[in-house]
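Notes taken during the Thursday session

The instructor put the following on the board and asked us to keep it in front of us for the whole hour. The protein is Prohibitin family protein. We were told not to look anything up and to reason only from what is written here. First, the residues (276 in total):
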Amino acid sequence: MNNRRLVPMIIIGVILLFVVMALSSSLFYTIATSERAIIFYKFGEGLDKETVIGEGFHTKAPWNDVFVYSINETSSDENMDVLDKNGLSIHVDVSARYNPMPDKIGYIHQKFYRTSTDDYIRVLVIPEVRSTVRQVMGRYTAEEIYSTKRAEVEGAIKTETEKILQLNYVNATAVLIRSIVLPEQIKGAIENKLQQEQEALAYQFRLDKEKSEAERKRIAAEGEARANNIVNSSLSDKLLKMRGIEATLELSKSPNSKVVIVGSSKDGLPLILGNN
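Then, after some discussion, the predicted structure tokens were revealed:
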């Protein structure tokens, strides 16, 4: 009797197990470390923008939809033709790096989702990057973009792109100009001009160096002349005679034998002859 009652329970349990296994993908889901998720409640409040689900194992009702977003930094490369300040066509290769703000993916989903959680890239990021690149490069000449102001152009593109994307809950970490291709004639003219400028700077440096050296020599010569004038003006006859006497006295103290010849000139300075 007990066995007859147990069989239906086993059958029901097995059926429930198969049902759970069949619905497991709808009941359970896992969010990776580099991901965040939001839920759309079909029979409730709809999209829950505020509740962002973090990493780990989670459960849900089978009729609710889970949308998973990667929050890792993503890179997009764009090849495009732009016009410079003078209307010259330039081909540029631009690389943009960005990621969605993890706690704002609900707002990104609501605004840009079409068929995939990557739609914000296609709908928002790429068009804004391309538009900003065109606007910024249109303020500079080809020569400035190619050589002297490349870093300034990159900085302006990043700043303006970052401002627009942040308003839509996306972080722009970098926007880099990977390459610039100019018409060969324009490129050759720019490179030739830059070379001439470098040569002119080098020539000016040599001139400045020679002028500095000449000025140094002039100052040294003037200083030496002033020193000689000071010495000459201080050498009187009495001073010379006194110095001669002092030197004679010092020599006379020497233990070596010597002969002192008294001079007959008006100075009267002696001449000392010694055997050493």
